[in-house]
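Troubleshooting log. The previous structure file for this entry was overwritten by mistake, so regenerating from the original sequence record. Sequence copied from the archived sheet and checked twice against the printout by T.R.
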Amino acid sequence: MKKMKDFKSMYHIRSIAMTLIAAVVLVGCSTTKQPEVEQGSVTDLYNKAEVFFKDANYKEALKYFDAINSRFPYGSYAQQSALDAIYAAYRSQDYTKALSLSEAYLRGYSQGAHLDYVLYMTGLANMALADNFVQDAFKVDQATRDVSSLLSAYQSFNLLQQNFPTSMYAADAQLRMKYIIETVARHQLYIVKFYQKRKAYVAVINRALALLRQYPETEAAYQVLPILINAYQAIHIPNLAERFEQILQANKNPKFEKIPRPTSSPKIEVPKIF
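Regenerated output below.
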C-alpha cells in the first residue's frame, strides 16, 4: 500500500497565513461587549496583564490583552499581546477565541516571526474542540464523533512540519498528525460499519475504497478489507471480492503501532519580542 501523500512544496509565509486562515474552525462569533478595563498607557495595561498571566489568571489577563489590541493596535506591545492572548485563551479553555485570535494574528503579522507557535496553538485548539467532557468522562472513542476539527488541526500541524521543521513544536506536531490520521481512519471505518448494518452495500464499497485510498497504512484500512469483500459478494461482483481477498491474505497479521492520545498540556513557550 502506498504511503499517504504529504504536502511537498514550501509555502511563502503569506501563503501559509492565508491557508491557515481558511482552515481555522470558528464555532461561533461573539457580539458581547468587551469587559471594561481602566484607562492607561499601553505599558501600564501590559504590565497588569502580565501580572495576571504569571498568576495563571488567564481570563483576567485576556481582558487586558484585548484592551491593548483594541486601543493600541500597532507596535510591539500589540504584537506581544496578540501572542500572549492566544495562549491565555487556550489555557482558559476558550478554544474558539484562541482560533479567532490566531486568525487575527495571521492577518496582522502574516510576514512576521513566530508563525510556528501560532500554527501549533491553532492545531491544539482545534484538537481541544474535538474533545468534550462526555468523551473524557465515559471514555468515548473520538473516532465516533465529528472529526472536522481534527482535520483542521492536521492541516495546521502539517503546515508547521513542512515550513518550520526545526521548530521546538515540530516533533510533537508529527506525533499529533499520526494520532489524527488513525482517529479519522477509525471514523471512516465507523461509517462503513454503519452502512454495513443497513445492508447499504454500494455505500459500504464507496466508503471503504475512500478509506483505503486516503489512509492506506492505518489499522482501520486493514480492518475494512473483510467488510469490503463481503459487500462485493453481496452485490455479486466476485472478481473484485477475490481481488481484495488476495490483498487481505498478502497482508495477513500486520503489526500496527499503537499511538497514544496526545497530552492536552504540552510544553509551550510563548514567544517574546521584547
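The two ends are 50 Å apart (CA to CA). Archived copy saved in two places this time.
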